[in-house]
Design goal:
The complex is a heterodimer of chains A (350) and B (337). Chain A has helices at 48-55, 82-88, 100-103, 110-119, 125-138, 144-148, 157-169, 187-204, 215-221, 239-244, 249-256, 297-301, 321-328, and strands at 6-17, 20-32, 37-41, 63-72, 75-76, 93-96, 175-179, 207-212, 224-229, 232-238, 307-310, 313-315. Chain A is of the alpha/beta class. In chain B, the strands form 2 sheets. Chain B has an 8-stranded mixed β-sheet with strand order 6-7-8-3-9-10-12-11, sandwiched between helices. Classes of the chains: A alpha/beta (350), B alpha/beta (337). The interface between A and B is large, with 47 and 52 residues.
Chain lengths: 350, 337
């Protein structure tokens, strides 16, 4: 494989709150390769959005990046001056957000806001405008010339997100970070936007980091995926493999808990009991152990590290699903309460 | 359908089942200034059968939430009738209607906005009991604790406040409140849309358990067709104020009879890369037209991939009619879908 264009090493982002320090991103490492599309999935509070914001140093107060490296073209983005990182943002690495409504200025013409993304990086005005029209067409906004002059409120939600994507692509960045770009949209519009992103990824070779809670979105768009839980990466690897053979019990149960529109019959969903941990007081050992059906004694006290579990696939689990299937009858398990497979419950073993 | 009746699922209501709610040609228009009207719900008829879960899907602005409020008579209809059993709710006013509302409860989307932050959880759950003067003192307290237990919360949480709970727990509180009066019908309006995937599954399972235990009938509204399909016996699809299809939920997926349903289904990503990459998106052209000025004929004709224009699709409105047994669709060319 080619050299990665982005290398994240031991990234840590924390929030100092009245109750103590919240470790929103707690020492994660990953690489992004040129032209690939990488999914980062997780539920609310897993740290996926904070990871995305940390890459461009956009973490809101009182959050701070307290450690690690983000290497892009041999420079550590975390060490750059404010001026230097602003040069990178929008030119080399662009970002689009969930809510296009609040990312667009309501009193400026939509097209002009796309121009601005280029003007900020020194492109002459007339060239910027010509490029904007080209981009609006590229993101399939019909009647681009007249839409250029429309204000954001005159566009539908899907159109606004297309305009945001045009803005993100304005300077032909090497990386586009998309933070839940379709969550606020209707499914038919979501499908169009995802197709658009996939086409742009293929045609322009822009690498995409897709932050989402939706496993279906990852399945359709991404080649590799990171699964986050409570501020950490619990599993990563090629999409086909992670979906076909997840090794972390969290990934496994997340996939089992989703109803599928193509399911042939009604099966009871296997829900993950309990809720995501309080990051002020994360659980000891493996952070998933309070909810894990396959936990063993070790999980309560020792934190597992990411280890190779298949070609290119890593999971942070003392048990892994191969063993849970073989020894704990994971596939036959009807009820996936904590400790249901391993029969290990708190109070009896520690 | 026999194949839907797997162990651990509510028995689907047989198609001959008695209808609990019957909606006849209901219309709801909202004034939009200058004499214009938003045609939010524009003449819909259907029934909700006793003991079933009827799913309702459609995109933003199709009228599904308005329809939910019409079924529970939280808002008056512009015209048309809503029956609950043999009683015409649309004829009732004031106290009489209020008494019937005990049987019709709702669970809302936003578990943060639908619970009063200054009330204890116990008072929130007991509010319906207080409103109808059903229980006081120790009995009231007992009922609250019982309800908390039913929805899987610690019965001693009754003195806590909503902010102490997570989204999933708050939704359980909303469910406990809806169950307080032993309703017959519960309308779930995007009740799980705001929750995380793993929590959604917990609430879906809870709703299924409660349905079995208390013989509830659900109208389950969501924009996520995969969840609706999972929980529903029948699914109803709305587009721009009209019902375009109603059928058994397995059949809706395997053989939709309306091009809009087909497009909607094709747009839902399946969490399986092998399957997802082989699927073809039925792309809809254009945008959803304004409900102030809905298109003539079939309302879907402006975006329909199989429309024959102008005749008949832009001229004649297709009736919602039986295309197969117990499978209704409103399309002139449903056999081409």
């Amino acid at each position: 494989m080619a050299n990665p264009i982005l290398q994240v090493r031991d990234l840590k982002t924390q929030f100092a709150t009245e109750g103590g320090i919240v470790k929103a991103v707690d020492g994660i490492s990953f690489e992004l390769y040129p032209g690939e599309s990488l999914g980062i999935v997780g539920e609310s509070g897993s740290g996926k959005s904070m990871t995305a914001l940390s890459l461009l140093r956009l973490v809101p107060d009182p959050g701070r990046i307290v450690g690690g490296q983000v290497l892009f073209r041999d420079q550590d983005l975390l060490q750059l001056t404010g001026e230097e990182i602003r040069e990178i943002r929008g030119r080399d690495i662009a970002m689009i957000f969930q809510d296009p409504q609040s990312s667009l200025n309501p009193v400026l013409q939509t097209g002009f806001q796309v121009d601005e993304a280029m003007l900020a990086h020194g492109k002459p005005k007339d060239q910027a405008r010509a490029r904007t029209l080209e981009l609006l067409k590229k993101v399939r906004i019909p009647a681009a010339e007249s839409r250029y002059k429309d204000f954001p409120h005159q566009l539908s939600g899907g159109m606004r997100q297309r305009a945001m994507i045009a803005m993100g692509l304005a300077n032909a960045p090497a990386i586009l970070i998309a933070d839940e770009p379709t969550t606020a949209l209707d499914v038919t519009v979501q499908a169009q936007i995802l197709e658009l992103l996939a086409d742009l990824n293929r045609e322009l070779g822009t690498a995409i980091i897709m932050i989402t809670h939706n496993m279906g979105v990852v399945a359709g768009l991404c080649t590799r995926v990171l699964v986050m839980y409570a501020g950490e990466i619990v599993e990563q690897g090629p999409v086909e493999q992670i979906f076909a053979n997840p090794q972390h019990p969290y990934t496994w149960s997340l996939l089992k808990s989703m109803p599928r529109v193509d399911a042939l019959r009604h099966e009871r969903l296997r829900s993950i009991e309990g809720m995501a941990p309080d990051l002020l007081r994360p659980p000891s050992g493996c952070r998933f152990h309070p909810r894990c059906p396959f936990r063993i004694e070790k999980c309560f006290t020792n934190e597992p590290r990411l280890e190779e579990v298949g070609p290119g696939q890593q999971a942070a689990c003392w048990v892994t699903m191969d063993r849970a299937r073989k020894e704990m009858g994971a596939d036959e398990l009807k009820d996936i309460r904590p400790g249901a497979g391993s029969n290990v419950h708190p109070g009896q073993e520690i | 359908m026999a194949e839907a009746a797997v162990k651990g699922t509510p028995a689907p209501a047989p198609s001959g089942a008695k209808s609990l709610v019957r909606v006849e040609n209901v219309v709801k228009h909202f004034p939009a200034g200058l004499g214009a009207h938003v045609h939010a719900v524009d003449g819909v008829s259907f029934d909700i059968r006793e003991g079933e879960t009827l799913g309702l899907v459609g995109e933003s602005g199709c009228g599904k939430s308005t329809l939910a409020r019409l079924v529970t008579q939280l808002i008056p209809a512009t015209s048309g009738k809503v029956f609950f059993g043999d009683v015409e709710l649309t004829k009732l006013r004031g106290e009489k209607l209020r008494q019937y509302r005990r049987q019709l409860q709702m669970i809302f989307q936003d578990p943060f906005a639908s619970l009063d932050p200054r009330m204890t959880v116990g008072d929130i759950i007991a509010e319906p009991l207080d409103n109808f003067r059903i229980a006081r003192g120790r009995k009231r307290n007992q009922r609250v604790q019982e309800l908390l237990k039913i929805v899987g919360l610690n019965p001693n949480f009754n003195n806590r406040y909503p902010h102490e709970f997570s989204g999933g727990q708050r939704q359980r509180i909303g469910i406990a409140r809806a169950l307080a009066l032993n309703p017959k019908l519960v309308v779930c309006d995007e009740a799980i849309s705001a929750l995380d995937v793993s929590i959604q599954a917990q609430i879906v399972n809870l709703l299924e358990d409660l349905q079995r235990e208390f013989r509830l009938t659900y109208l389950f509204i969501a924009h996520d067709l995969s969840v609706v399909r999972h929980i529903s016996d029948r699914v109803m699809v709305m587009y721009l104020g009209k019902i375009v299809e109603i059928a058994d939920s397995v059949e809706t997926y395997s053989s939709p009879k309306h091009p809009y349903t087909k497009a909607l289904l094709s747009a839902i990503p399946v969490p399986d890369p092998k399957v997802q990459r082989g699927r073809r998106l039925v792309e809809l052209t254009g945008e959803i037209p304004s409900p102030i000025n809905p298109p003539s004929g079939c309302r879907f004709h402006t975006r329909c991939p199989i429309a024959r224009l102008p005749t008949p699709c832009a001229e004649t409105e297709p009736p919602l009619e039986e295309k197969r047994r117990d499978h209704l669709a409103a399309c002139h060319f449903s056999s081409d879908v």
